Every structure is written in C-alpha cells, then in structure tokens.
Amino acid sequence: MIIYFFFFIILFLLSFSEVFFKKKDFSWLFFTLLLLCVLVSVRYNVGTDWARYVEHYKEIKPIWDLHFSDYIIEPLFVTIISLCKSVGLDYQICFFIFAIISIFVLFISFHKIGPYIAVPFLIYYGFHFLSYQMNIVRHGIMTSFIVLSWYYIYKRRIYSYILCISIGAMFQSLALMFMPFYFLLKYKYSIKQTFLFLLFSFLFYQFVDLNIVLLALPIFQSKMEYYTVGFYSEIDGSSYGFSIGFIFSLFLFFLLRLFLMKNRYDASINRERILLNCLMWSIFMGVIFNNLSLLVERIVGVLNMSITILLSLLVFSSRGKRQVIIFCFIVLYSLLSLMMNLKPKGIYNDNQFVPYQYKII
Question: How far apart are the C-alpha atoms of 67 and 341, rounded to whole Å?
Fold first, then answer.
C-alpha cells in the first residue's frame, strides 16, 4: 500500500510548487507519470479486471490472422494487442502502451483546458487512477479522449470533437453516447432550467423503468443488457445511492454556478461553462441511473472528470488564505478518496489493489 501513498506525496509536492511557487515542472511531472505507467504495466493480479485483460491478450490473434469481424467492435484496442503479439511482446507492454495513451492524453487535456497540470492529476490520482488504470482500462482511455474533446467544444471545432469521440469509441464503444454532448455542453442553461431538469431527473428515477428505455437502444443493446438485466442486475446492493460524493457534486455545482463562476458561465462559450455543464449533466444522470451503479460508473463518472479541472480553476482564481484553504481541502479530499478506493469492496468484499504485487517478465 505504501507505493500508492508515495506517488500521492510526489503529486502533492508538484501541485504545491505549481500553485504557490508558480512553477510548472514538466520534467518531474512527466517522469512521475511515466513511473505510474510502469506501476500499471508490471502489476501482477492487481485489479479485478487484470486477469480478464490478460485473457484478452491471449485470445486475440496476431495481426496477419485477424479477420474483418475482429475489428467491428473497439478496433484500436484489438489492433494494439494484435500488433504486440505479432512482434512477440508480452502483455505487460500492452498494459504500458494503454497507460501511456490514457495518461498522456489527459496530460494534453489538462494543459489545454486548465490553468494547472499537476493539481488535476493529484485529484485524478485520488479519485480515478486505480479504477481507470488498473480495472476498466479501455474505459479509462475512452475517458481521456472525451476530456480532450471538451476543449474543442469551446473552441467550436466540431470535427476535432467528433474525431476525439471516435478515437475513444475505438477503445470503448460506449463513447458514442457522448456524441450529442457537443450541443448539450455549450448551451447556456438558466437557473430555472437547471432546477426543472433536476426535478425531472428525480421524477424520471421514481416513475420510469429504465430497463425498458435502455434496452430500446439498438446500438448499445448488448452492453445495456449486461448492466440492466444481466449479471450486475442480480447483485444485491448494486444501487449507487445518494452518496457524500453526489452531495458534494451538487453543492460544488450550485456554489460555482450561482456565485463563484456566474459571470464566466453567462459570458460567451468558454471552459467554465463547458465544465459546469459537464458537472450538471453528471448530477442529472446520476439521479436518473441511480439504481444502476455500473452505468453511474461508466457514464456519470466520465462527466465527473470535470471536477478535476473545476477545482483547479477554483484554486487558480483564489488568493491568499482562501487559496490555501481550497488547496488543503483538495489535498484532503483526494487523499480520503484514495484511501476509500484502497479499501476492500465489490461483490465478494475483496481488496482489488492491496497488496500491490509486480512481476517483470
């Protein structure tokens, strides 16, 4: 477990230097992120999906034996594994390549959208790293490309946005569900509309059978069956619930929307509006999909990535004691989230990430 806290401390020091000494040390941050990729790639039996990805590697054929049907779903994921097998590389190299793509697309995203890079990575590490890098790996790569796509919304570059979503879909087809968000995220929602949407979400959650609605989507039918009437529907306690994290998201959204970022939100299309709308839609969808915890993780979790940059913007726009207090809160909240993620959980109350084991082949 010590290894996880070691990287948290490194990211904390880099964030502290970035905020209070105005130093963006790309070399040290780059080196730290590279070590995190190594940490992900050499792990052995760490993460619930580790064995499944190893099995994927064994099942996928070399590039010259692949057929067209092998490329229909998530072709980039298949191609990278197939190329690695074709030249005799081990599955650990595949894990490293996937981690490099995911983490460094995020690096580009944070650099383009936010005022800081180390700070959002500190938040990401506490909240999402273990899940996106050691469990739902394809989903983690997809998420990175979706975060990058937000930059192209306020830059009004729809083709670049479509390209980002399309690349993400080549790793995880669920990315296609985010295609309409180019229009949903740049719209200026009034406070009245926001409250009406929130009320509608609660009513939808209470009175609509989501299984029927989701299974009516032909493109995603097989995935929706997996989440709604398949294995996960039979697990007791799979409901997401209105957690502390959900309450915090709700509080943060209205604090920023009504007070701290009101003027920026009401101005022309900008990053503040895009990110606040991401958070707003994550709240709406978190309520609607409340009984389907896996969909909350897969869809709402992506939109919740906006918090990493929003909190960075909040630190950047603050001065003096308020900046110190907000930064300390971010560090503490990220640390508590990391500790929570390291606790035993899941169907069998097993520990997915502790102890950390590695194997170098």
Answer: 39
